[in-house]
Amino acid sequence: MLTEMEKKVIAAIQGDIPICERPYQALAERIGLSEETLLDTLADLRRRDLVRRFGATLRHQKSGYAANAMGAWQVDEARVEEVGRIMSACRQISHCYRRNPTGDWPYNLYTMIHAESEAACWTIARGLAREAGVEHFTLLFSRRELKKTSMTYFPPDGADNGS
Fold first, then answer.
1. Fold topology of 4-47
2. What pTM, to 2 d.p., does this model score?
Protein backbone atom coordinates (compact mmCIF):
# COMPACT_ATOMS: atom_id res chain seq x y z
CA MET A 1 0.00 0.00 0.00
CA LEU A 2 1.30 3.45 -0.91
CA THR A 3 1.14 6.44 1.39
CA GLU A 4 -0.31 9.74 0.18
CA MET A 5 3.22 11.20 0.13
CA GLU A 6 4.48 8.30 -2.01
CA LYS A 7 1.61 8.87 -4.44
CA LYS A 8 2.52 12.59 -4.64
CA VAL A 9 6.16 11.69 -5.35
CA ILE A 10 5.16 9.23 -8.07
CA ALA A 11 2.81 11.82 -9.59
CA ALA A 12 5.67 14.36 -9.57
CA ILE A 13 8.06 12.12 -11.51
CA GLN A 14 5.51 10.90 -14.09
CA GLY A 15 5.81 13.94 -16.31
CA ASP A 16 8.68 16.01 -17.58
CA ILE A 17 11.53 16.50 -15.16
CA PRO A 18 12.65 20.15 -15.07
CA ILE A 19 15.79 20.98 -16.99
CA CYS A 20 17.75 22.80 -14.33
CA GLU A 21 20.73 22.31 -12.03
CA ARG A 22 18.64 20.67 -9.26
CA PRO A 23 15.62 19.00 -10.94
CA TYR A 24 14.71 16.90 -7.89
CA GLN A 25 14.77 19.97 -5.69
CA ALA A 26 12.40 21.72 -8.11
CA LEU A 27 10.07 18.68 -8.12
CA ALA A 28 10.19 18.47 -4.33
CA GLU A 29 9.35 22.16 -3.92
CA ARG A 30 6.45 21.77 -6.34
CA ILE A 31 4.84 19.17 -4.06
CA GLY A 32 5.86 20.72 -0.74
CA LEU A 33 8.71 18.40 0.25
CA SER A 34 12.42 18.81 0.79
CA GLU A 35 14.75 17.47 -1.90
CA GLU A 36 16.16 15.00 0.65
CA THR A 37 12.68 13.66 1.48
CA LEU A 38 11.82 13.26 -2.21
CA LEU A 39 15.09 11.43 -2.94
CA ASP A 40 14.76 9.22 0.17
CA THR A 41 11.21 8.35 -0.85
CA LEU A 42 12.31 7.48 -4.39
CA ALA A 43 15.16 5.34 -3.04
CA ASP A 44 12.70 3.49 -0.80
CA LEU A 45 10.27 2.97 -3.69
CA ARG A 46 13.17 1.55 -5.73
CA ARG A 47 14.24 -0.76 -2.88
CA ARG A 48 10.66 -2.02 -2.68
CA ASP A 49 10.63 -2.47 -6.48
CA LEU A 50 7.61 -0.16 -6.80
CA VAL A 51 9.57 2.17 -9.08
CA ARG A 52 11.77 0.14 -11.36
CA ARG A 53 13.38 2.75 -13.59
CA PHE A 54 13.42 6.27 -14.93
CA GLY A 55 13.48 6.70 -18.67
CA ALA A 56 14.25 9.68 -20.82
CA THR A 57 12.11 10.49 -23.82
CA LEU A 58 14.14 12.25 -26.48
CA ARG A 59 12.08 14.33 -28.87
CA HIS A 60 14.44 13.73 -31.78
CA GLN A 61 13.15 16.24 -34.30
CA LYS A 62 13.06 19.00 -31.67
CA SER A 63 16.67 18.14 -30.76
CA GLY A 64 17.92 19.01 -34.22
CA TYR A 65 18.28 15.50 -35.67
CA ALA A 66 16.87 15.18 -39.17
CA ALA A 67 17.18 11.38 -39.30
CA ASN A 68 16.41 8.72 -36.72
CA ALA A 69 16.72 5.01 -37.34
CA MET A 70 15.90 1.93 -35.33
CA GLY A 71 18.85 -0.40 -35.83
CA ALA A 72 17.81 -4.06 -35.69
CA TRP A 73 20.85 -6.28 -35.14
CA GLN A 74 21.20 -10.07 -35.29
CA VAL A 75 23.66 -10.87 -32.52
CA ASP A 76 24.75 -14.23 -31.15
CA GLU A 77 23.09 -14.53 -27.72
CA ALA A 78 26.46 -15.20 -26.07
CA ARG A 79 27.62 -11.75 -27.30
CA VAL A 80 24.53 -9.61 -26.65
CA GLU A 81 25.94 -7.94 -23.50
CA GLU A 82 29.33 -7.28 -25.14
CA VAL A 83 27.81 -5.88 -28.34
CA GLY A 84 25.24 -3.88 -26.36
CA ARG A 85 28.05 -2.18 -24.42
CA ILE A 86 29.85 -1.28 -27.66
CA MET A 87 26.73 0.15 -29.24
CA SER A 88 25.47 2.01 -26.19
CA ALA A 89 28.85 3.75 -25.89
CA CYS A 90 28.23 5.48 -29.25
CA ARG A 91 27.08 9.06 -28.64
CA GLN A 92 24.60 8.90 -31.55
CA ILE A 93 22.75 6.01 -29.85
CA SER A 94 20.00 6.91 -27.39
CA HIS A 95 18.51 3.44 -26.75
CA CYS A 96 19.98 -0.05 -26.80
CA TYR A 97 18.01 -3.10 -25.72
CA ARG A 98 17.49 -6.81 -26.35
CA ARG A 99 14.25 -8.46 -27.52
CA ASN A 100 13.43 -12.05 -28.47
CA PRO A 101 13.54 -12.75 -32.22
CA THR A 102 10.21 -13.90 -33.69
CA GLY A 103 9.24 -15.89 -36.76
CA ASP A 104 11.24 -14.74 -39.75
CA TRP A 105 12.48 -11.59 -37.96
CA PRO A 106 15.87 -12.77 -36.58
CA TYR A 107 16.96 -9.54 -34.86
CA ASN A 108 17.48 -9.52 -31.10
CA LEU A 109 19.33 -6.26 -30.33
CA TYR A 110 17.89 -2.82 -31.08
CA THR A 111 19.35 0.67 -31.07
CA MET A 112 18.06 4.15 -31.89
CA ILE A 113 20.53 6.04 -34.06
CA HIS A 114 20.26 9.82 -34.45
CA ALA A 115 22.09 11.80 -37.12
CA GLU A 116 21.79 14.67 -39.56
CA SER A 117 20.77 12.45 -42.50
CA GLU A 118 19.75 8.91 -43.39
CA ALA A 119 23.14 8.44 -45.08
CA ALA A 120 24.85 9.43 -41.82
CA CYS A 121 22.73 6.86 -39.93
CA TRP A 122 23.90 4.17 -42.35
CA THR A 123 27.52 5.27 -41.92
CA ILE A 124 27.20 5.08 -38.13
CA ALA A 125 25.52 1.66 -38.35
CA ARG A 126 28.16 0.22 -40.67
CA GLY A 127 30.90 1.50 -38.34
CA LEU A 128 29.19 -0.07 -35.33
CA ALA A 129 28.74 -3.34 -37.23
CA ARG A 130 32.48 -3.44 -38.01
CA GLU A 131 33.48 -2.51 -34.46
CA ALA A 132 31.14 -5.05 -32.87
CA GLY A 133 31.65 -7.81 -35.44
CA VAL A 134 27.95 -7.97 -36.38
CA GLU A 135 27.18 -9.05 -39.95
CA HIS A 136 23.39 -8.88 -40.15
CA PHE A 137 21.41 -5.72 -39.41
CA THR A 138 18.86 -3.40 -40.91
CA LEU A 139 17.73 0.17 -40.27
CA LEU A 140 14.11 1.28 -39.95
CA PHE A 141 13.77 5.05 -40.36
CA SER A 142 11.33 7.31 -38.54
CA ARG A 143 9.09 9.09 -41.02
CA ARG A 144 7.18 11.19 -38.51
CA GLU A 145 7.21 11.64 -34.78
CA LEU A 146 4.05 10.73 -32.93
CA LYS A 147 3.01 12.22 -29.63
CA LYS A 148 5.04 10.72 -26.81
CA THR A 149 3.37 10.35 -23.46
CA SER A 150 4.32 8.64 -20.25
CA MET A 151 2.11 6.38 -18.20
CA THR A 152 0.15 8.25 -15.53
CA TYR A 153 -0.47 6.25 -12.37
CA PHE A 154 -1.50 9.13 -10.13
CA PRO A 155 -2.72 12.39 -11.66
CA PRO A 156 -1.17 15.49 -10.12
CA ASP A 157 -3.35 17.46 -7.70
CA GLY A 158 -6.12 19.25 -9.55
CA ALA A 159 -5.69 17.27 -12.78
CA ASP A 160 -8.60 15.51 -14.40
CA ASN A 161 -8.16 11.78 -13.94
CA GLY A 162 -10.63 10.89 -16.66
CA SER A 163 -13.41 9.74 -14.33
1. Arc Repressor Mutant, subunit A (1.10.10)
2. 0.59
